[in-house]
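Tokens for Helix-turn-helix domain-containing protein. Go.
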Amino acid sequence: MQTMRHEDLDTLPTVVSIMTAARALKLSRTYAYELARRGDFPCRIIRVGTAYRVPTAELRKLLGVT
């Protein structure tokens, strides 16, 4: 999985998939989903049916990108 640069965060929509968030946080797919299922993902997760979504603003805040 290719890591994400800070410049890439500027192009993200309002919410992103858990895989995009995992890429930004340098987490593996398996570990990201495990954290989400346990409720331990490092930022807020929005559950839409069976999909997980992460608010980009919270992801950027966690990463220290303003």
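Helices lie at 6-9, 18-25, 29-38, 56-63.
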